[in-house]
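Before we proceed, please read the two lines closing this message. Tell me what the C-alpha cell row says about the fold.
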Amino acid sequence: MLDRLQKVEVLRVLALPGCPLCRLAHEDEDRALRTLLREGSSNARLLGRLARAGGFCRSHAWALQHLEEETWRDGLINASLARPLLQEALDSLETPSTKRRTASRPEPATGGASCPICTTLASLQTSRALQLAGGLAEEELAHRFAAREQGLCLPHFRLVWSEEMTDAVRASLREVQRGQMRRLVEHLDGYLRTHHMHVTDEPSPEERESWRAAVAALSGEDHTT
C-alpha cells in the first residue's frame, strides 16, 4: 500500500501525458543533479564512488555541466570534481616504463564501476516500479491508470511487470498496455501508408506523431528538450 504522499505523487503523474515512470525518472534525475550541485565536493561518500567509477557517464557529466552553467554561470563544482579524476589519470600515465604498457591500454569509461548518478537512479526506478505496482491494487489509482490512453514505455512496463501483484492487477496492466500498443501500431500503419507513392491522403495528427511515439514507447520518453 502507498502512503498519502506516494499516492498523491502517482496520481499527479497519471494525469500527465506520456509514461508516468519516465516522468518520475526525469524528476528524480533532475533532483539528483541539483543535490550534487549543492553538495559539490563536500560529500565524501560521493567522491569515493566517483573515484571508483572514474567519473560520471557522458550523459550525466554533460548534464551536470549544463546545469551548473545555467544555474550559476560558473563551473566551480565541475572543476572541483574533475580535478582529482584528471590527476589520477595523469598519475597513471607517469608510471615506470615497466608498467607503462599496461597503463596505456584503454580501460572502460566507467573504470569497472557505474556512474554514481546512474546507480542512484537505477535503484530509484526499482522503487518506483514497486510503488506503481502496489498503487494499482488501489481502486482509485487502478481506475485512473485504466482510463489513460497511454500505458508505460516498454522498459518500464517490463520493470513493473516483474514485481509481485495480484492476478487482477496484472490483467489490468496488460490490458492498458495492449490498448496502447494496438493504437500505436494502427497509427504507424496509417503513417507508413501515406508515404506510399500512389497515396495522396495526409496523415492524421496521431499518425504524424506516431513515429516519435514509437520511439518513446520502445525506449522511454525524452525529457531533455
Q: What stands out?
A: Confidence is low (pLDDT under 50) at residues 98-112. Residues 25 and 125 are 7 Å apart (CA to CA). Residues 167-193 form the longest helix (27 residues). The chain has one domain: 4-219.
